[in-house]
Amino acid sequence: xxxxxxxxxxxxxxxxxxxxxxxxxxxxxxxxxxxxxxxxxxxxxxxxxxxxxxxxxxxxxxxxxxxxxxxxxxxxxxxxxxxxxxxxxxxxxxxxxxxxxxxxxxxxxxxxxxxxxxxxxxxxxxxxxxxxxxxxxxxxxxxxxxxx
Length: 148
Description:
Layout: H1 3-12, E1 17-22, E2 26-31, E3 36-37, E4 50-55, E5 63-67, E6 74-79, H2 80-83, E7 99-106, E8 114-116, E9 122-125, E10 130-133, E11 145-147
Antiparallel strand pairs: 1-2, 3-4, 4-5, 5-6, 6-7, 7-8, 7-9, 8-11, 9-10
């Protein structure tokens, strides 16, 4: 898209709709403005740069971080405050401005408990619509923290 086309959209306030057919959620239609750009991807998925957050009433309080580039890739996520409110204090101060901090959930088969990766939270900047996963220096947090 050229700059002039983008500028015209801004001036007339039109939405850019995206439609995807996903395995997990079926047909999704959303505005391009909700897409988060991960410049470096995620560890193990460095080639994936565009993600959206899906709120699914059937899996609450879990949300989903769904790749727009590869529709078969999606991660169950929770907001940090739902697991460990103190974890936010470990995240560098500049990272949280205009941001939401999330953790990836690993859904295990019973009787194994679900786990969350507290060692490497995902930061979504809601102002710039960018995202990244950071690694915390503290040994206090585990990548396989058990939750109920």
